[in-house]
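Hey, quick one: can you model this chain's 3D structure?
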Amino acid sequence: MISKESVQEALDLIRPALQADGGDVQLVDVTEEGVVQVALQGACRGCPMSQLTLANGVERVLKEQLPEVVRVEAV
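Sure thing. Here's the predicted structure for all 75 residues.
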């Protein structure tokens, strides 16, 4: 199972880019199946591009850092 600590460390790599645009991401949970659940915050919440950010930014980086990640979901 993926540890929340390792996911948090990977999210910390993404966080500066999100914060530069007035947003952020918060780790909610990591399931036994490898699904990472996050909450988009600030400008990212409600942004029309948030799903693209989630897929092409957050999910891509997490999968690069942690190959056991299956997908990332916004909750």
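One thing worth noting: The chain has a mean pLDDT of 92.
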